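Quick one, probably user error.
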């Protein structure tokens, strides 16, 4: 940590700051210039708040220089994390992994057809919510366990893996036998109790960026899961809320290379929730891969006009096929491939 004192700070002010830094476990290096004193705190005390120093008497500003996320930081595993799933699927390797399917599991017929279309298009995972976080309590809330069973059944039939959203701790046990990857939705990115529990399971987790979360907050949420011992974690940019209202959210493409730089964890893009408008999904999917995404999570529905949730952003099956053909051409340009 660096503490820059005000020009007019007194020796007493300076000593007070030094004392507090030493108390926390910092080794303090003092530099006094013509007017200003700079205090550099070396070491990594477990608990300290930069904000506490910013308000001490005589302090101009204080800056954290060490990263607050130890396990999520790129330094922890500079070579990057590869997550191995059944069927030989690896997320975080050279392959850009495609996950697609409807927003919600609605019926056996709907999810079976979706699975066939996703598999035909080259997808590796079938997505589909069995437990749905809806903005309104009157909207369709998902099929629950029935939905999980259907996901497993049709995925086995089509050779796909299953990713689906977990909304609360009590669902973890119920879901384990049916799924290959837990999805933590944007609304739960800071449900710290849920994150802690997911740190104790031995099944991969995909953590979505919260609707108004900063990149640092995403990484601190990741830290909750990693610190429980679960290192099979994927991050996902899915758009954030900005002042723009044309699109459902603003797909923050830049978050993808930023995260790739800051963390060793694989980073995916969800262009469907990122823009909320079907025809804008392919360009954002291509942009995500060009920006270095390790995979895409996309909504596709056999009949989007009749979907029970997120129909407007769900691709028609033909659109998904066409998009995958384009992604296959694009991926090699950035040194990646799509199987
Ligand atoms: C979803 O994937 O259907 C979903 C609810 O996403 P998010 O949490 O990003 O809103
Ligand atoms: Mn959705």
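Nope, works fine. Designed sequence:
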């Amino acid at each position: 940590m660096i503490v820059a004192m005000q020009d007019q700070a007194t020796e007493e002010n300076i000593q007070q700051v030094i004392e507090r830094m030493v108390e926390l476990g910092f080794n303090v290096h003092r530099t006094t210039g013509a007017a200003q004193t700079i205090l550099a705190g070396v070491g990594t005390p477990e608990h300290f708040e930069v904000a506490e120093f910013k308000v001490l008497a005589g302090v101009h500003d204080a800056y954290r220089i060490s990263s607050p996320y130890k396990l999520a930081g790129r330094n922890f595993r500079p070579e990057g994390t590869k997550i191995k799933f059944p069927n030989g699927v690896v997320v975080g390797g050279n392959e850009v992994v495609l996950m697609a399917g409807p927003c919600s599991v609605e019926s056996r017929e709907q999810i079976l057809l979706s699975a066939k279309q996703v598999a035909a298009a080259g997808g590796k995972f079938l997505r589909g919510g069995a437990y749905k976080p809806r903005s309104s309590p009157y909207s369709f809330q998902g099929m629950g366990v029935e939905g999980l069973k259907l996901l497993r059944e049709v995925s086995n039939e089509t050779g796909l893996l299953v990713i689906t959203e977990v909304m609360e701790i009590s669902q973890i046990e119920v879901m384990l036998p049916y799924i290959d990857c837990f999805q933590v939705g944007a609304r739960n990115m800071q449900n710290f109790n849920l994150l802690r529990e997911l740190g104790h399971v031995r099944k991969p987790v995909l953590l979505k960026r919260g609707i108004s979360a900063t990149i640092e907050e995403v990484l601190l949420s990741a830290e909750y899961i990693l610190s429980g011992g679960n290192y099979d974690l994927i991050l996902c940019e899915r758009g954030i809320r900005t002042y723009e209202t044309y699109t459902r959210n603003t797909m923050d493409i830049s978050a993808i290379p930023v995260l790739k730089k800051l963390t060793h964890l694989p980073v995916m893009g969800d262009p469907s929730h990122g823009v909320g408008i079907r025809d804008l999904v392919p360009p954002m999917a291509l942009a995500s891969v060009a920006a270095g995404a390790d995979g895409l999570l996309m909504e596709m529905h056999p009949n989007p006009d009749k979907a029970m949730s997120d129909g407007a952003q769900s691709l028609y099956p033909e659109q998904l096929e066409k998009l995958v053909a384009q992604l296959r051409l694009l991926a090699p340009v950035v040194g990646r491939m799509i199987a």
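The longest strand covers residues 27-32.
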